[in-house]
Protein: XRE family transcriptional regulator
Organism: Cryobacterium lactosi
Amino acid sequence: MCTTLESNAAALIQSGRIFGENDMTTGTRIRKYRDLAGLSQRELEKLTDISQSSIARLERDERIAKPYELSALALALGCLDSNLIENHPVRERLRYAARTTPLTTPNVEPVKDHLFYLLEMDTYLARALSTLTSA
């Protein structure tokens, strides 16, 4: 049976509301959610099939998480992919649009999640391109 503290932590994980989240990098978010879930990097490795060394590099922002890695991490940590992604300039506009949609509209959550995924892919490709051009 969950304690009140565990319930509150689970609610925070599901909602994505963690103090200072707006200025957190993807790596910091992964680390924060892993800590909240009470998992070590080795335990997360077993749940995701992502090596412990890769998880460590992701958490230190030494490399960019691939979209399939974000999905695996989010599933293991009990949150949405979008909770792990650092803020993107268009992200807040999408949230605003989703909130202002009339109630008669079908469930927009899957569309929102897919758009967040595409934004992460855009960020990933932009960073990869800047790394290639700076080399």
Q: What stands out?
A: Residues 1-6, 12-19 have pLDDT under 50 and may be disordered.
